[in-house]
Specification:
D-Maltodextrin-Binding Protein, domain 2, 3 domains, Arc Repressor Mutant, subunit A, 9-stranded mixed beta sheet
């Protein structure tokens, strides 16, 4: 078992040391950690060094061009996250006791709601509650659920309904997954696209961890088709590659509205599409719902 020194009376442990340490651990880089915390890289390095000196242990070791936690670092990471969670819960409890909706709410959203649906509602929330702030981060649905599990975000908005044993979810908005092509593509001129013609096309898709891709994989399996696939990392790239004629795209209808109206893309009439789904707002079942988080949920629920 690793033994670490908890506190030095002359150098009390500081919250900013823990935040910098966890950021370096999560991003595997002092430079990226500094950018994420809006600090200089020397400041983050100083925080980590002072934490190591306070605990009388090394927290990171360099292996080639990468850094990884030492055994002591693994112990500190576990406790540091718990301490920061406790500090945040204390701040939320104080904010709730004052009776006003205030403080920050951390939101993780998958790309469809995060890019195309949430910004307007988050702005409405801040207009109603000027002492509250939202912090929005965007990733695929799997990543958002991972962040919820470790309390890195307070609320998630995702394209799949998660495990009810771990998460509480509620419908946020209806959505439809569609197939589309460049307006210049030969399929765009067809009133109805036969499955045989569609199966010969290259599909431009999101990564496997995205809810949109998981829905497509279910469709592909049920229709027993094995088209050529190009994996692209974000919906904007999928749209640009599709508009350039590299293949047909599969995304939420919410994400292609502007390009369709401008005549760049054309939604295809394809058998078994569009695929309808719900987008969900999600929080961990053990999550304390602060006054600000409850107020945000009211705004999100009111938009359906």
């Amino acid at each position: 078992m690793t033994t670490i020194k908890i506190l030095d009376r002359e150098a009390p442990l500081k919250i900013e040391w823990l935040r910098s340490f966890l950021a370096v651990m999560d991003l595997s880089s002092f430079t990226k950690a500094a950018k994420s915390l809006h600090l200089s890289q020397p400041a983050v390095s100083t925080h980590v060094r002072e934490l190591e000196e306070n605990l009388s242990t090394r927290l990171f070791e360099h292996v080639g061009n990468t850094i990884r936690l030492t055994r002591s670092g693994e112990t500190v990471a576990r406790e540091a996250r718990r301490i920061l969670d406790d500090v945040r819960e204390l701040q939320l409890a104080v904010a709730d006791s004052e009776g006003a909706v205030q403080g920050s709410v951390r939101i993780g959203a998958s790309t469809t709601p995060g890019n195309y649906l949430l910004p307007e509602r988050l702005a409405e929330f801040e207009r109603r509650h000027p002492r509250a702030r939202v912090l929005l981060s965007i990733g695929n649905s799997s990543k958002v659920l991972d962040l919820l599990s470790v309390n890195e975000v307070d609320l998630g908005v995702v394209g799949i309904e998660p495990d009810p044993a771990e998460f509480v979810s509620r419908p946020f908005a209806r959505d439809e997954i569609v197939v589309f092509a460049s307006a210049r593509h030969p399929l765009a001129k067809k009133k109805r696209v036969p499955m045989a013609d569609l199966a010969r096309e290259r599909f431009l898709l999101r990564e496997l961890e995205s809810a949109t891709r998981q829905i497509f994989e279910g469709w592909r399996s049920s229709h027993r088709v094995a088209p050529e696939i190009m994996v692209l990392g974000c919906p904007e790239t999928v749209k640009r590659a599709t508009a350039a004629g590299l293949g047909v795209g599969v995304l939420s209808r919410h994400s292609i509205g502007w390009e369709v109206r401008e005549g760049m893309l054309r939604e295809l009439d394809v058998p078994s599409f569009p695929i309808r789904r719900w987008l969900y707002s999600v929080h961990h079942r053990r999550k304390h719902l602060s006054r600000a988080l409850r107020a945000l949920l009211e705004v999100l629920d009111g938009g359906k």
